[in-house]
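Just curious. Invent one:
>
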Amino acid sequence: MQTSTVINFRPLATGTRTDASDCSDAFGPMPELPKPTQRWTVRRKAAVIESVRGGWVPIDEICELYSVSVDEFLAWERDIDRYGIHGLRTTRYQIYRDTNAPARQAG
């Protein structure tokens, strides 16, 4: 004797999208990318990093759009991983830089 399984799905709320192009529930919304002509701020760099890490934009397109080298972008990622969003600051970079490295190499 065969049995069947009945799966009860919750009804969709009114006004929600049902097409496959809306992935915001699964992956969150894509961050708003800054304009290529804007000055770099910590938040704008973080949005660009988030869009690449989220898979919304490939790294080569970001580098071409914003005239940033891949090495510079990877440095942003390294800094945000090590120091958090404040590690992306350029005005206080000396706080995060290892200033004793040349002294250790010489000695």
